[in-house]
């Protein structure tokens, strides 16, 4: 009698059922992991942009601004830009322009919200931010939350009084 190699239909169905159960358990965890990774990447990009502004202010010995995209917007979820002068050309930083005062422009962030009381950050030649240099001011921070998955902790970018930044895990996103 010749033996046949391969799987029977019953064995194949059992494997498919096991794969389906495993996938249904793993999918929500994968979605949470992907949302957390995207949230952290946005927080790192924000921290990096703020650090670039500080370094450029020290290097150029001039003010450098970090503002949310949009001429009148205070919504950091629309992205942000770093520019070297406070002028009406800030609106041009979000458009494709040859304005050399625009040092960095980020894209809008999808599926992520950024909550902050800060409308703009201005770094002076000494590397300290105008936002956090007031002695009565506490450390200002940006709370970055994924909007697609609930229950994740935020990624917080905090502006220190010295002008530097710190990335930390915050409280649960609302």
Automatic annotation (TrEMBL):
A Pfam family annotated for this UniProt entry: GspH
What is any one of the record's Gene Ontology cellular component terms?
A: type II protein secretion system complex
Q: Which family does it belong to?
A: Belongs to the GSP H family.
Q: Which UniProt keywords apply?
A: Cell inner membrane, Cell membrane, Membrane, Methylation, Transmembrane, Transmembrane helix
Instruction: Provide the taxonomic classification.
Output: Bacteria, Pseudomonadati, Pseudomonadota, Gammaproteobacteria, Cellvibrionales
Q: Where, subcellularly, is it found?
A: Cell inner membrane
Please indicate if the UniProt record lists Membrane as a keyword: yes
Q: Where is the General secretion pathway GspH domain?
A: 43-160
Source species: Umboniibacter marinipuniceus
- List all membrane-crossing ranges: 6-27
User: Under what name is this protein listed?
Assistant: Type II secretion system protein H
